[in-house]
């Protein structure tokens, strides 16, 4: 960061207040900074939240607010303020795609702006910038990139273009993710991770994501945890749930990742990765029952779950998957729909269906 800011400071201004899971309020502050200093463009140096802050601020500078006006598909009317993205994590792929995630604090969920006008004008992928990344962040962002690749590859909206991108992403990530987490100074592994995350990020714009991200959106807001951690905790349980519906694509994924020849090899590998690098994040979570029930009511209605996921998930399935995903016991990751139902969750679901807030 110092290397970049020292070069920028002579002719620009540094704003270093981007927050994790950016909100409309935090993005408005960033946009006001850009306007107040009569900037010519934004150079976003950071992780996915930082780059999304810049992309969303670029929408506000070009088209005004409020931000929620632009949430959804193809609502941004034209070109945005220019953004150059320099990622310092390898995960979101935001530096190369046209999706922007914004935390809606009132509804405690993530919203997305999806518009081709939100794509940065340039991205600089430099593995040297990953060398000081903490191992836990490397694991969380890396597994998020893999989740993008897997979910888009098995999406009901997948097409030959997204399949090609996702298989290429998995080939890059598979042999390098654990190596990179163990040594973030490994330039070759970091380079592969950056490229894999970028390809997965582009592919996600075509085929979108499935149940893992549908469940992560409401959970991240309620639990206040990083997106990648949430995704990585949920991924093995959801992969196990989906296995019967996309066996051949999971087999192709295992081969692309270089971890085996069977669909089950993929699920086992994901569980092992979670256990090795992410499970302690679940141990610290405070999970009142209401978190599962209200989040599940929202997740099950997300198109990622209801339309794109290869296997349809019921409300009870989603609660069981939250329980398995946030469990600290590996054995709890294999779930069935009969594990779950909770009475107050029915109330939450009914409230949503009737239009009341849950
Ligand atoms: Fe993600």
Descriptive overview:
By secondary structure, the protein is mostly helical. The relative contact order is 0.10. The chain is 55% helix and 7% strand. It has a three-stranded parallel sheet with strand order 1-3-6, with helices on one face. Strands 2-5-4 form a three-stranded mixed sheet. It is built from 16 helices and six strands. The longest helix is centred in the middle third of the chain and has 21 residues. It is globular, with a radius of gyration of 19 Å. Fe (ii) ion binds next to helix 4 and helix 9.
Keywords summarizing the entry:
three-stranded parallel sheet; 7% strand; globular; binds fe (ii) ion
Main sheet attributes: strand count, strand direction, barrel closure: 3 strands, parallel
Arithmetic mean of pLDDT: 89
The parts where pLDDT drops under 50 for at least 5 residues are 330-358
Structural class: mainly alpha
Quote the beta fraction: 5-15%
Distance between the termini: 41 Å
Small-molecule binders here are: fe (ii) ion
- What is the count of β-strands? 6
Order the strands across the largest sheet as they lie in space: 1-3-6
Globally, the shape reads: globular
Radius of gyration: 19 Å
In sequence order, what are the helices and strands, one letter per element?
HHEHEEEEEHHHHHHHHHHHHH
Total number of helical segments?
A: 16
User: Helical content, roughly?
Assistant: 40-55%
